[in-house]
Amino acid sequence: MTKFNDQLTQTGGPEWLTAKRQQGLDLFTSLDVPTEGVEAWKYTRVDVDFDALNPHPKREATTDTTKLPASVQKRLSSTDVGAFLVLDGPDVVYRTELPAELTAKGVIFTDLKTAVEQHADKVQQYLYSVVPAEVPDDTTIAAPGTTPSKSPDPSEGKFSALAAALWTNGAFVYVPRGVEVELPLGSFRVMSEAGTYTATRTLVVCEENAQVTFIDEQDSEELPGTYAIGAVELVVKQAARLRYVSIQNWGKGVTHIQRQRGDVERDGTLNSLVVTMGGTLSRTEMQSYLRGQGADSEMLALYFANDDQHFDHYTLQHHAAAHAHSDLLYKGVNDDTSVGVFSGMIKVDLDAQKTDAYQKHRTLMLSSEARNFSVPQLEINANDVRCSHGSTTGPVDQEALFFLRSRGISREVAEKMLVTAFLEDVLARVPLQSVVKYIEGIIAEKVGAA
């Protein structure tokens, strides 16, 4: 597509990055838009006219927070973060700097475009190492920081390739060996122009024995015909600890497609939380590749779909080493004519003995017209493992509803209480109180509309 070639040319950057972008664009051009005939997209169809897609217009930076969207102003006044970026479409429109003591220890937190210019060695080492720009022929997986030879996900596709080619900005976090960042770092992404698309990329590198929390939030007003496409690469080195939180609260009319993948080395820990509340169609892929012995992955998610929203979650717990542990808990609510999709895979390689892996997906249905599709899966190639998976889908518990109503509580209020309680056990596992309160506020708004 000539227009995308022109856009790639306009991105600029060093030769190595241009080459990677071109690989992504070549892959994008060679692939079809996934349809129901592709197993990983069986229940989700994205209708998009790529020829009609226009990039989100540029935005000017400001030092005045009152010029930021109201939703961002509200979040910045209530969140506890050590530093943050605000991106409107492709541009950083507001930022705060890292505390001096963290900078002195070698911590880097900036937008990815700036990082390519100022920290080229680190960015080149890790960018595209977890979510590659191409799909080679063999089936081995290289370590982050080296050339990847094959992604562990069989559904590498057109949207991921487009994000690899045309990302305009995003966040870059680098925490050196042995450094612990106590307060979370955050990126707040907004869009403000309907009928456009934005492609972003986030890269978080946590070196040996380092620790950091990164909060990635997306928010907008109603924007018909708008697309948010992106990729998140999480590199967790030996004995490092990374907590990643994604909160998607786009306005109606937005199509959200994002791949989030973590690569966890020996004794490393990756805790992830994916919250999906906004947009008209959302497809989120969260995957953990447990490379080293003793690696640990906790994958949490909650979603609430109402009206005609369509939320699709695709997960992969890939155990490639012995004595690793993973635990997945996804909980969702479907109301009105909404659709929920969960497809989760626990994959255990031949040498991944003593694997300990769990997967649980539960959905609460508030409407007889809503639909939910759940496909938990196991692919086990080792013979000494403990793996389990399960899925439940059903209406509000009638006994619990009767109990509350017998105490004089109206049916409407009782149902709202039960919905809140149903989702609460996911949030109980998140030790970030300002984030939990914010998510509870979104849930309250959704429940109020239920």
TrEMBL record:
UniProt domain SUF system FeS cluster assembly SufBD N-terminal: residue ranges: 8-185
A single Gene Ontology CC term: iron-sulfur cluster assembly complex
Any GO BP: iron-sulfur cluster assembly
InterPro entries: Fe-S_cluster_assembly_SufBD (IPR055346), SUF_FeS_clus_asmbl_SufBD_core (IPR000825), SUF_FeS_clus_asmbl_SufBD_sf (IPR037284), SUF_FeS_clus_asmbl_SufD (IPR011542), SufBD_N (IPR045595)
Pfam families: SUFBD_core, SufBD_N
The SUF system FeS cluster assembly SufBD core domain, residue ranges: 192-422
Chain segments annotated as coiled-coil in the UniProt record: none
PANTHER family, A to Z: PROTEIN ABCI7, CHLOROPLASTIC
Entry's family note: Belongs to the iron-sulfur cluster assembly SufBD family.
NCBIfam families: sufD (TIGR01981)
Protein name: Fe-S cluster assembly protein SufD
Organism of origin: Deinococcus radiodurans (strain ATCC 13939 / DSM 20539 / JCM 16871 / CCUG 27074 / LMG 4051 / NBRC 15346 / NCIMB 9279 / VKM B-1422 / R1)
